[in-house]
Fold:
Amino acid sequence: MRPWDYHRELTEDRLVKVAQLLALGRGSAVDRFDPAIGDDNWTLGVCAYNYGCFQIARAAGTPGFEWLGVIDAGKHFQFSIGGVPMRFWRGDPTEPTAKIVIATPREQLLLDLEPGVPTAGVLFRIGVITDIDGALLGASFVALRNDQPETVWPLPLAEAEPLIVLLGDERPEGRDLLPPSVGDIGDDEDDYGTEADAGPDGI
Structure:
């Protein structure tokens, strides 16, 4: 089955856009990866996951992404496509991890409320595979039933149009600042103390 055979909201275009957002997040993590300051595969994975969540949350509800929403912005991040709950993970799409096959509270509620629906008991995920550096190589739509992949549908990222996200142009309101005070260096020391007052490191 194809994604839209499960639910009409799960269109190819939408799934591809979500995968592109995940690729954008992973790309940012790879760009910032620096073993010289202590980064390792664990920090890369954490950053890539967090940045992917951020990209989805930032795009949700913006022009062209009105169908994208965030259900749970916490560590067990969950989003929705047209109201259909989704999650993502990094790994072989044909071998989902033990954590990713567990239904979230929202998914469990839907499963309980829709026992007669043909897709009842099915969880929807996006599995991403990466290269040795951690960049996204490909992604697949995965439908899980009884903890096992029932459908693994590779997303055609190579043929996709470039991703465009139109963010809102709201800007924080400006604040009136007091004019800077002008005086002798000695005056500053009286007001703020000396380096010795700041502590052993001068901080």
Summary: Residues 160 and 202 are 54 Å apart (CA to CA).
